[in-house]
């Protein structure tokens, strides 16, 4: 039993529980007594009576046993209760004895250090007892410092808190007497412990008649921590004293000022190893002006205390808020200005965020009729800077201006955001500017004041970190008069800059100007803040090192820099060229190029008559080229302006597809005198080359249509040529050539159709050759229809593959009176693969145009077939000649048919291509001659080793 431990409170609880259980059992036994001891027999026979007697006897025995158990339970509960009481009494006696022993032991331990150093080894320091007395120091080994005594009497500062020893918290500083400073908080333990809180400053004494009010006392500084712990918060400043009444007679100005609020105490330093800095104390409010009808002034609010700095690891303390200004006293008086907010403490040297800046105090109101000015709002405190790693603190918000009767007071400026970590961290956001003061409820005339400017954002960390956003400007004050003007809004703060890697901080929004009266002007809105500069390595396009980021997309072009910026060296798409379609005569911007991986930017569209921008190149390793921009339509004029050329598609790098060429612009309409012509359509841009290793080439852009001139005496413009398809690299398809633009419709002469673009060559090892673009149709006219454009040549194959077919020539334009128009020639078929492959078929010649009078037009010649591959491959067949145009004129002649194209030759093994059939002649109108059928093309030669020659057409 020597190791038995008894807890009296547990014994008492157990007794209560057991007593409750006993009561429950007793109630259950009583409830079961009557139903079980007085059973009725089921029948009148002897067996039923005997069974009933047995059960009733058992029930009576149970009741007797329950009575004995209940008595035992009651005695057990009584014994347990007495035991708990006995243990409690014994503990009380023992505790009194042990307490005395404890005090004796501590006395023996503390005696040497008390005699030598005047402080114990273990134990808390004594609190100060007389006004303004400091608290005693805590034990050298362990113990909290004693609290300082309050000053109590006017002018007596509060006592400082006592310092702790090795482990413990510093004592709290005492509050100052009237107008006196609060005591400083005690220092925390050397090893561990928090600093003590600073004491509050005493309120200023009210001024006597004819005298100013006294200033409030400053708050005490927070105590610093030792190795590990948080700094103590600074004490709040005292309120300023009320201004006294002036002693002059009626109409005499007093000029008496209320006392200023006391400044807040600074926060204590955080532990050198770890711990947050203490918060700064709030500034005291300014004192009130005295009675009405006197020009007394409200007191200025106290400045908030700065937050304490951290040591190695920890966050800086927040700055204290500025005190509010006191209200005005009377006629021609003014409210006091608000106090500025305290700055945030710096973060830990290794890691920690900067503390937030304190908010500026609001200006005092001009509350009495005839008061001139409300007080200006105080400025927000700056955010604290971070250490090596961490984010800067947010700037404090500027205080609002006070209400006024005549002149609205300005809002305070927002605080600057703290700098991000020296290595890594984001800059703090700037504080918002304070709003200008509002008109008082009884104001009948007021000029609006200016809103406060927003604070600038903090700079980001050297290696990585975003700049802080600028604070918004405060709103300008509204006017309460029909003739007065509103105040200007505050400017937004500038965004903070990033350094090496990071995004720029956004500029702050401008503050709105205040509303003017019906006969006055509204205040101007403030200027928006300027965005900061992004990282020099990444995040600051287009101002990064070498003009491009390491990773990221290039910026799009703008009016001052139309070309898109290049993408990141390692990864990123090029920016798009600027779209100048709204700017006549100005070419579209070129797309920016990608770096190692990424797509080229798109070329921008050209303005009227100007070329589209070139697409940007794809990434060196992987990425597609950007599409070229469209050319602008020609301007109308004496001679219509030509359409702009489409931009070329950007090439791919090692792996990727080329960009498509841009479309040519439409020619402009004429507007001068006799003989003036519409503008020609712009040529389509060429397609970009495919990747050197793999990737399809881009297609060409379509030629622009010639401008129309449907009324006398103008001539139509010619269609632009279609862009050629780009060539492939090792693997990939060649780009398709685009169709030529149609000739314009003209009264005196139709425009000629544009030539079709050639197909691009297929991949050197494998890949289809690009298809050719069809020639544009000639334009219709009353007198001279335009000729059709020639079809584009089919693309050639690489080492293996078939050449692409040539495209058909465009049909000649219809003529109403005379002047036949011819069909365009068909394009040549592309050559088959250099080693193996068939040549492409030549394109069909365009149809000669029919004429209402005089002769029909001649058909276009068919294109020649492509040559077969060097080792094996058949030559391509020649294209058929176009049919000549018919005429219903009795004296007119039909047009001649076009000649068929020659068949392509085979080389070593393969058949020659068949010659194309000649075009059929056009019929005459009865009195003239029919046209001559075109000649068939010559069949191509067969292979040198084996192969039949082609059949003549």
From TrEMBL:
Alphabetical list of InterPro entries matching this protein: PE-PGRS_N (IPR000084), PGRS_rpt (IPR048996), PPE_sf (IPR038332)
Biased composition (Gly residues): 279-289, 892-953
Membrane spanning residue stretches: none
Gene3D superfamilies noted in UniProt: HP0062-like domain
Highest taxon listed in the record's lineage: Bacteria
Region of interest (Disordered), ranges: 279-300, 879-953
Domain called PE: residue spans: 4-92
A Pfam family assignment: PE
Annotated protein name in UniProt: PE family protein
Organism: Mycobacterium kansasii
Lineage: Bacteria, Bacillati, Actinomycetota, Actinomycetes, Mycobacteriales
């Amino acid at each position: 039993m020597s190791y038995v431990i008894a807890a009296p409170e547990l014994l008492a609880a157990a007794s209560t529980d057991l007593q409750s259980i006993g009561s429950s059992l007793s109630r259950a036994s009583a409830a079961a007594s009557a139903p079980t001891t007085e059973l009725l027999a089921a029948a009148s026979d002897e067996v039923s009576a005997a069974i009933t007697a047995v059960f009733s006897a058992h029930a009576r025995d149970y009741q007797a046993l329950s009575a004995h158990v209940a008595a035992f339970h009651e005695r057990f509960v009584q014994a347990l209760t007495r035991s708990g009481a006995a243990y409690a009494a014994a503990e009380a006696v023992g505790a009194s004895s042990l307490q005395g022993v404890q005090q004796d032991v501590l006395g023996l331990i503390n005696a040497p250090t008390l005699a030598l150093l005047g402080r114990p080894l273990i134990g808390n320091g004594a609190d100060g007892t007389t006004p303004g007395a400091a608290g005693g120091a805590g034990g050298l080994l362990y113990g909290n410092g004693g609290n300082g005594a309050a000053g109590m009497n006017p002018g007596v500062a509060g006592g400082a808190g006592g310092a702790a020893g090795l482990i413990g918290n510093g004592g709290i500083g005492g509050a100052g007497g009237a107008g006196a400073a609060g005591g400083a908080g005690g220092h925390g333990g050397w090893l561990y412990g928090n600093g003590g809180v600073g004491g509050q400053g005493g309120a200023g004494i009210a001024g006597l008649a004819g005298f100013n009010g006294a200033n409030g006392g400053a708050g005490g500084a927070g105590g610093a921590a030792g190795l590990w712990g948080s700094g103590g918060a600074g004490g709040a400043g005292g309120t300023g004293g009320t201004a006294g009444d002036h002693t002059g007679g009626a109409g005499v100005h007093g000029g008496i000022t209320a006392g200023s609020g006391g400044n807040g105490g600074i926060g204590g330093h955080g532990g050198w190893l770890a711990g947050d800095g203490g918060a700064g104390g709030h500034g005291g409010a300014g004192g009130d002006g005295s009675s009405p009808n006197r020009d007394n002034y409200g007191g200025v609010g106290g400045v908030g205390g700065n937050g304490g700095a951290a040591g190695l690891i920890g966050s800086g303390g927040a700055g204290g808020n500025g005190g509010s200004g006191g209200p005005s006293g009377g006629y021609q008086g003014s409210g006091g200005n608000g106090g500025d907010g305290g700055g945030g403490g710096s973060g830990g040297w290794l890691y920690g965020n900067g503390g937030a800046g304190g908010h500026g105090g609001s200006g005092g109101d001009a509350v009495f009729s005839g008061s001139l000015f409300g007080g200006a709002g105080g400025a927000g405190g700056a955010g604290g800077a971070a250490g090596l790693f961490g984010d800067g603190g947010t700037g404090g918000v500027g205080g609002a201006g006070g209400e006024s009767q005549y002149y609205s007071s300005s809002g305070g400026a927002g605080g600057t955001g703290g700098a991000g970590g020296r290595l890594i961290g984001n800059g703090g956001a700037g504080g918002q500017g304070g709003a200008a003061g509002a008109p008082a409820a009884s104001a009948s005339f007021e000029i609006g004041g200016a809103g406060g400017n927003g604070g600038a954002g903090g700079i980001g960390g050297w290696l990585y970190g975003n700049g802080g956003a600028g604070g918004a400007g405060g709103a300008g004050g509204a006017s309460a008069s029909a003739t007065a003007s509103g105040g200007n809004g505050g400017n937004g703060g500038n965004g903070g800059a990033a350094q090496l890697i990071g995004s720029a901080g956004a500029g702050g929004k401008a503050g709105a100007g205040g509303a003017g009266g019906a006969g006055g002007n509204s205040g101007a809105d403030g200027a928006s803040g300027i965005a900061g500069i992004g990282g020099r390595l990444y995040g600051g396009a287009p101002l990064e090192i070498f003009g491009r980021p390491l990773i990221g997309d290039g910026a799009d072009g703008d009016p001052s820099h139309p070309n898109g910026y290049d993408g990141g060296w390692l990864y990123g798409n090029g920016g798009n060229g600027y779209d100048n379609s709204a700017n006549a005569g100005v070419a579209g911007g070129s797309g920016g190029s990608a770096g190692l991986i990424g797509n080229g930017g798109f070329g921008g569209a050209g303005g009227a008559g100007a070329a589209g921008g070139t697409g940007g190149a794809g990434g060196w390793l992987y990425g597609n080229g950007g599409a070229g921009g469209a050319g602008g339509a020609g301007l109308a004029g004496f001679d219509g302006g030509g359409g702009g050329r489409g931009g070329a598609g950007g090439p791919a790098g090692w792996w990727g597809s080329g960009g498509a060429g841009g479309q040519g612009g439409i020619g402009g309409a004429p507007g001068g005198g006799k003989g003036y012509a519409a503008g020609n359509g712009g040529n389509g841009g060429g397609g970009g080359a495919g990747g050197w290793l793999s990737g399809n080439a881009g297609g060409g852009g379509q030629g622009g249509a010639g401008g129309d001139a449907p009324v006398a005496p103008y001539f139509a413009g010619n269609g632009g040529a279609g862009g050629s398809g780009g060539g492939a690299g090792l693997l990939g398809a060649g780009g398709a050539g685009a169709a030529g633009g149609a000739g314009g419709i003209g009264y005196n002469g139709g425009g000629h159709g544009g030539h079709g673009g050639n197909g691009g060559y297929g991949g050197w090892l494998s890949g289809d050759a690009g298809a050719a673009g069809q020639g544009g149709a000639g334009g219709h006219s009353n007198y001279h229809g335009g000729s059709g454009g020639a079809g584009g040549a089919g693309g050639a194959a690489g080492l293996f593959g078939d050449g692409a077919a040539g495209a058909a020539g465009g049909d000649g334009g219809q003529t109403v009176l005379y002047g036949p128009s011819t069909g365009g020639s068909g394009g040549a078929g592309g050559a088959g693969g250099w080693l193996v492959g068939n040549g492409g078929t030549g394109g069909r010649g365009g149809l000669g145009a029919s004429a209402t009078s005089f002769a029909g037009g001649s058909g276009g010649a068919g294109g020649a077939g492509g040559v077969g591959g060097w080792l094996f491959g058949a030559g391509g067949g020649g294209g058929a000649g176009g049919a000549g145009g018919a005429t219903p004129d009795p004296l007119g002649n039909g047009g001649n048919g076009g000649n068929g194209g020659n068949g392509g030759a085979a080389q070593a093994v393969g058949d020659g291509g068949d010659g194309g059939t000649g075009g059929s002649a056009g019929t005459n109108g009865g009195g003239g001659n029919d046209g001559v059928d075109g000649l068939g093309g010559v069949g191509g030669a067969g292979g040198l080793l084996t192969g039949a020659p082609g059949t003549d057409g």
